[in-house]
Write a structure and sequence with these properties.
Chains A, B: Belongs to the GppA/Ppx family. 2 copies of one chain form a homodimer. By secondary structure, the first copy, chain A, is of the alpha/beta class. Chain A contains 20 helices and 14 strands. The interface between A and B is large, with 36 and 37 residues.
């Protein structure tokens, strides 16, 4: 195992993320610290001020102590725009090196964009998109198509700059808002490739402000999940957050539910950037990414030292399987059998095809709850799947996987789904039920957890479904347990189940 | 690590529990199987029937296959009353040994009582009590005082016998109920030591029926926790379950919420035994134990091969700490500091003293949620503590520990407590808040997770509380973080906080 400290010196905050990486290259964040240093609040010449440098030094000293205390094997320290742009950056770098022995890597705008891309592409399942990393002192834009970077740019202004230029930390007049919009449209106008973006790609937002926009929107909608990552908003919702902050004073802004105090002064400026980019590029959805620069640094580190991440969902699932000592052989056997049934019973899933990812997640993690407690482990699987930060699934897919897994022993919906009706439709519930029946059958067919059943042949025959488990010897025990599912099978699929 | 299969051949069901025991003697149940074989339904001469023996043999064969498939290092097979009493038990034992190579250990009534006692005494924090293990074919009673067994007896009838003798599987007339009551009072009257039981000791019930009584009661009261173990009922609630099953037919009984179908026929007879023992001994509460014979066999195995369990709460907490790779040094440091503050600030806790166990649990497990996800790990700690099956705490104590831990970073009650108002009072909530403040302070004082602060001196001085951390060097970082808690401290304790 390798223990890594990642320090990210931004224009707004300085952060430390502590990460354990295991032999397979799976990683786990186990602590995080943030100090709002505001290094980006430079003097009129753009110089880092002595005061801010001192605060940053103290924070870095504390972070170094923490890294040493937890016995980190390596500390990766990266600085972005605030340091990059400062004419006196060398003074700061020397100070930090001499006092603390920390070598700060100053990222170029291109590198900053690249790491944000790494953070996103390994955690959000979108083939194409425009990534925006909105920092305090710069804004990175990366356009990728079919997983390949097409263009990227680092715009030399961020939330702090915009706030200062247009004095937006307090209530903003219509004229100022208009001027800010014009400025942004002008700046975006200089980026030629932005004009040729295809429609229907999402804006994938990285950074504290964007998570904050998501949070405000979720609060206002009583969104039932406490997940920042992969939250999706339509432009009008972003506009509404923009509008409701515009007229308010700083004091009033602080009271907005979900808006973090540390950020209240620069929030409107940042929000304006997000909203106007959506407008300018005529993009139809904002995807909030909880994973960005810091995670990108981790993925890059893993990729260079271990085998690359590959499929992000598989990576996440295997990460969880190894972390919680889930019986991998049994998990994959249940997945294999359920998947085989799913393919053969295609017609019974009707319009609810495209559930491969849900089936895989639910099957591989159906026993994940055992790590909390064997008793009620089906309910615990629900909690685990919902909360363990699986990458590559939308909130709806996570929720469906969690429900399906929670029903792998009993087809009674103990967990009331109405509270999730913003996310799940009645159709989704029917699909969940169907998947869960396949899990129960597969679980029964691996009662002895010994891969005894090699495959299963399924055939829809009028009003019934015939299943024939294939094994070296007739799997009597397994069949007798599987057959207990027949009543629920009939209820869910509307067909009789025959197992021979 | 040792992997153990425990097979329990009861009169009603045959069960397999799979357990992993680590080097420290901590164990975890990772799978369980149950088949309702009803070996106790013997013929008129009390002989095990050929049919039941055959079913038992098949079940045992399946269990053995499962044990082999999961590579159990050892299989412990124990049989209770049904086999013990049967004149033809040797036929059965020989059959099983010849066919499967399994040697069944037939427990005497005393041994059966002893193992139930082991299961209870290691998981329920009661100094004295009357344990009742109500099986299909016998009923064990164990009286212990200050942790020492005073008397025990194995009564030669269980749920199946009573059901047969009085034909109670369907609705029961008043006369039959009266006859059953008279029979039980007569039998209990023969046990001399039962007459001398002190008042105020609980009846601690072990076995499926008793868990079932608890479940029915919880359903009827909309009890907010899904925990069988350590659920406490007053006699009138047991009586009410008894009364509501008495008149009903088998069909109607099956529909009672919480009553398991497998047990519906013998449930009334069993329930009558529980109720009449409560009546006869004039006991004022029934404590449901989820831990009994099988767990007792595990504890006994551990005790003979590893160091003994000792304090059950410590054992549970250390079990969880090692299972989830919680930073043990940091956890114990937070506990040490919080505990020191708690002792010194006694007067501020007023009537809510006696929270040592809650403080310990919350402090040691405050970071347990990180194993699920670092983000929102305070909320995950709530779930973990509530669900990981900690022994030695009542439901109220578990809930209070969970809440206190969930507030270790922020004193805002995100998790609504009104749903738990059956269990928690407003006073309890105030205590939770106070404990959580101590946790936050201790967490801050161990920011670098390096045990830098050795102790803390606290003094209540009129309207303020002074705290002085003791360390080799002045802990500036730690103090500056701890001081952030002052507003919440003042709100919760009604005193100003000064840290120097």
């Amino acid at each position: 195992m390798k223990r890594l400290g990642i320090i990210d010196i931004g224009s707004n905050s300085v952060r430390l993320v502590l990460v354990d990486i295991n032999a397979q290259g799976h990683f786990k964040i186990f602590n995080e610290f943030k100090e709002t240093v505001r290094l980006g609040e430079t003097d009129s010449k753009g110089m880092l001020t002595a005061e801010k440098m001192q605060t940053a030094l103290e924070t870095l000293g504390m972070f170094k102590t923490i890294c040493e205390a937890v016995r980190a094997d390596e500390i990766v320290t990266a600085a972005t725009a605030a340091v990059r742009r400062a004419p006196n950056k060398n003074e700061f770098l020397t100070l930090v090196y001499e006092r603390l022995g920390l070598r700060i890597r100053v990222l170029s705008g291109e590198e900053e964009a690249y790491y944000a891309y790494c953070g996103v592409i390994n955690s959000i399942d979108e083939k194409s998109g425009l990534i925006m990393d909105l920092g305090g002192g710069s804004t990175e834009l990366v356009h990728f198509e079919d997983g390949v970077v097409k263009n990227s740019i680092s715009l030399p202004f961020g939330a702090i700059d915009v706030t200062r230029m247009f004095d937006t930390s307090n209530s903003v007049s219509a004229a100022t808002a208009q001027a800010l919009r014009r400025f942004l449209f002008d700046e975006l106008g200089k980026v030629n490739w932005l004009k040729d973006l295809k429609k229907n790609i999402p804006l994938i937002g990285v950074g504290g402000t964007i998570r904050n926009i998501g949070k405000i929107d979720k609060k206002s909608k009583d969104y039932p999940l406490d997940m920042a990552h992969y939250y999706i908003m339509d432009p009008s919702s972003v506009c509404s957050v923009y509008e409701q902050t515009k007229d308010r004073t700083l004091e009033q802004r602080i009271k907005i539910k979900g808006l973090s105090k540390d950020r209240a002064d620069i929030f409107f400026g940042a929000c304006a950037v997000v909203w106007h980019i959506l407008e300018y590029c005529r993009i139809d959805r904002l995807v909030v990414s909880g994973s960005g620069l810091r995670e990108g640094l981790v993925y890059d580190y893993i990729g260079s030292s271990y085998s690359p991440v590959g499929n992000m969902l598989d990576f996440s699932l295997n990460n969880i399987i190894s972390q919680f000592n889930i019986n991998r052989v049994h998990a994959y056997q249940v997945y294999k059998l359920a998947s085989s049934m799913y393919v053969q019973l295609e017609e019974l899933f009707g319009s609810s095809r495209e559930c491969e990812k849900i089936l895989k997640t639910a099957a591989l993690l159906h026993d994940s709850g055992i790590s909390i407690n064997f008793y009620s482990h089906d309910s615990h699987a629900f909690y685990m799947i919902l909360n363990s930060g699986i990458n590559g699934l939308t909130h709806r897919e996570i929720l469906m996987s969690a429900y399906a897994a929670s029903l792998h022993r009993n087809t009674k919906l103990k967990l009331k789904w109405k509270q999730y009706s913003q996310i799940l439709s009645e159709d989704d519930i029917r699909t969940i039920m169907k998947i869960s029946i396949l899990l129960r059958l597969s679980e029964s067919l691996d009662t002895c957890m010994d891969n005894f059943v090699e495959d299963i042949k399924c055939r829809v025959d009028g009003e019934s479904v015939e299943m024939n488990p294939i094994a070296k010897k007739k799997p009597n025990v397994e069949i007798s347990r599987a057959i207990n599912t027949r009543h629920d099978f009939e209820q869910v699929f509307g067909k009789k189940l025959l197992i021979q």
